[in-house]
Specification:
It is built from eight helices and two strands, in the order ααββαααααα. Helix 3 crosses helix 6, helix 4 runs antiparallel to helix 5 and helix 6 packs antiparallel against helix 7. The chain has one domain: Arp2/3 complex 21 kDa subunit ARPC3 (Orthogonal Bundle), CATH 1.10.1760.20. Strands 1-2 form a two-stranded antiparallel ribbon. It is mainly α. A hairpin with a 2-residue loop joins strand 1 and strand 2.
């Protein structure tokens, strides 16, 4: 999924960079509403976790390997705006220090994985959560579906960039078939990892999963009722 330098022509790469900057600007404003005493420390941990897991590849098919994109997972844990920023930071660090994705293609990579992956994954998650039972299992199942759909959606966005500004002679139809086919399989691994991670956090600290806050019961302030004798004594004193 990490696009190298020279794979997309300069005009489209620049346009993708503009989209990425604009999208991250919106996320910066939105993250102010999401970050609180629980989300702020968790955001750093989510970024570190996504970075670490993205470095691990798992075999898919015909010598192809894949890795976690992490957009849906980050959005479910810390919110879509903060989640997009976490994934963007990971992509920037990978491009600058690990040569994982080209610097000229950074806008394409951020748009694909940080913006499209997060938006699609979180929207699908919210839609599925709305129809499933309001339980932890429902949240875990919805997170798996959202993560699964987000991967081919990000791959499809890359195909759009390639169709407009690809520098290779490979036909767009061939690229589309290869990208969607492989990333459907990668989506299965993404769904499993996301579901396991969300389920593990729910089992230990459910209050840290932003996408599951609807499961938390609201606290009710109750005052102890006055004893019957005290109430009767008070009324007698008033009569006297």
């Amino acid at each position: 999924m990490h696009v190298p330098d020279g794979f997309i022509d300069p005009p489209v790469s620049i346009a993708a960079g503009v989209v990425a900057v604009a999208g991250l600007g919106v996320c910066l404003r939105g993250a102010r509403r999401e970050l609180d005493e629980r989300t702020a420390p968790l955001a750093g941990l989510v970024a570190a976790f996504v970075f670490a897991v993205q470095m691990l590849n798992f075999p898919v098919a015909a010598g192809t390997s894949g890795h976690l994109l992490g957009g849906a997972l980050a959005a479910i844990l810390v919110g879509p705006y903060t989640g997009a920023l976490c994934v963007a930071v990971v992509l920037i660090v990978q491009g600058l220090f690990f040569a994982d994705g080209g610097l000229t293609a950074l806008g394409v990579n951020v748009t694909d994985m940080s913006i499209v992956g997060v938006v699609v994954g979180y929207v699908v998650f919210r839609l599925v959560v709305a129809v499933l039972p309001k339980t932890r299992f429902g949240v875990v199942a919805a997170s798996a579906v959202g993560a699964f759909v987000a991967v081919p959606a990000a791959a499809l966005m890359f195909v759009v960039f390639y169709a407009v500004g690809g520098t290779s002679d490979v036909p767009v139809g061939t690229v589309l078939t290869a990208m969607i086919g492989v990333h459907l399989l990668i989506g299965v691994g993404e769904a499993v990892i996301t579901a396991m991670t969300v389920g593990s956090v729910l089992a230990v600290r459910p209050d840290l999963v932003r996408g599951a806050r609807h499961l938390q019961k609201r606290l009710e302030l109750r005052t102890p009722a006055a004893p019957v004798g005290a109430a009767h004594h008070g009324s007698t004193a008033q009569e006297a």
